[in-house]
Amino acid sequence: MKIAYLILAHADPLHLQRLIAKLLTGDSAVFIHVDKKSDTGRFQHLKNDRVFFIEDRVPVYWGDFSQVEAILKLLDAALASKFGATRLVLLSGADYPIRPMSEIESFFAARPATEFINAVKMPADAAGKPIARLNSFVLRPGSSRLAQIGKRACRKIGLIPRQRDHAKYLKDLVPFGGSTWWAITRDAGEYVRHFVRTRSDIVAFFRNVEFPDEAFFQTVLLNSKFAEHVSRNLTYTDWRAGGSSPSMINDTHLPMFSAGVSFAPGDSYGDGPALFARKFKDGQENLLKAIDTIGSTSDGHLEVSGR
User: Fold this and answer.
1) Are residues 10 and 138 in the same domain?
2) 74 and 141: one domain?
3) HEC readout, the chain
4) Which domain holds residue 245?
5) pLDDT single digits (tens) 244-279
6) Is residue 298 situated within a structural domain?
7) Rounded to two decimals, what is the model's pTM?
8) Do 139 and 228 belong together in one domain?
């Protein structure tokens, strides 16, 4: 099995360098999209024959469709590459593996048809996925100040709606929501790419919803034949402090990582193991070295209940 790691990056080049070095094995390649608002000069030294940077970058904004656009560019690059990946794993530049790479590769090899993506049918208020995310018409950021003023004026007089009925636009598709990060098969990736090319109406709808990166891929895949092979995603994120951003990973997480992180059956997205964690930043080399020792004396077998 060949694995393509698709990485959304915008900062912390030292951590990204460490992440790339960890991910690169004889059976992997890395594809990176650096936010167009960031200076790529800080990252260019990381290029090699299996580390590819997206040239046609987009400025990425939190909660905006630009995140989906950047992910689709990564997907296109990985699928078009001669590397020939059979597994596509989406990470952020602030992620890091919390299990040995040999275990991670064995895990994927044993589950060649499973699509690891968090997904619940919307509305799912308990999972933080209200239907309002789809019905609210969101004005997109990034345009000039004059354009923003014009959009707000059009909204005020009713030319741009505040609300829409998602069912009118999605038609035959049931809406699903989840998390940004996933690990899907090549066939599923090809299906998403074909969907984008043939269902421009659905793509256009998602351009103006809240947090489309947490619903677009879920809605596409869960309304396809791939739905029967879906399992929860594989990235641990610490939301225990609350708020709109997860806590940074630190030394207090090491005992949990050493024991092996497993999501409980009561989780909104079901049970299963965590193979990656977020988020990290530059200057945490000692923490990463400690994480690298996890599982180093194991027999390489990951004991999990996930499919």
Assistant:
1) no
2) no
3) CCEEEEEEECCCHHHHHHHHHHHCCCCEEEEEEECCCCCHHHCHHHCECCEEECCCCCCCCCCCCHHHHHHHHHHHHHHHCCCCCCEEEEEECCEEECCCHHHHHHHHHCCCCCEEEEEEECCEHHHCECCHHHHECCCCCCCCHHHHHHHHHHHHCCCCCCECCHHHHHCCCCCEEEEEEEEEEHHHHHHHHHHHHHCHHHHHHHCCCCCHHHCHHHHHHHCCHHHHHEECCCEEECCCCCCCCCCCCCHHHHHHHHHCCEECCCCCCCCEECCEEECCCCCCHHHHHHHHCCCCCCCCCCCCCCC
4) 3-122+176-292
5) 889 999 999 999 999 999 998 889 999 999 999 999
6) no
7) 0.93
8) no
Closest to 161 in 3D by CA, of 132, 136, 133, 130:
136
Cβ atoms of residues 13 and 40 within 8 Å: no
**208-217 per-position pLDDT tens digit:** 999 999 999 9
CATH number of the domain bearing residue 19: 3.90.550
Alpha carbons 69 and 71: distance in angstroms, whole number:
5
Are residues 214 and 73 part of one domain? yes
Q: 163-196 pLDDT, tens per residue?
A: 999 999 999 999 999 999 999 999 999 999 999 9
Looking at the fold, whether 157 and 285 belong to one and the same domain comes out as no
Kindly state whether residue 305 falls inside one of the protein's structural domains: no
Residues 84 and 185 in one domain: yes
How far is Cα 303 from Cα 62, in angstroms, rounded to an integer? 35
Q: How do residues 275-300 score in pLDDT, each as one tens digit?
A: 999 999 999 999 999 999 997 644 44
Do 161 and 65 lie in a common domain?
no
In the chain, the number of structural domains is 2
Token look-up 């596409």 returns 220
Q: Clarify whether residues 201 and 93 are in a common domain.
A: yes
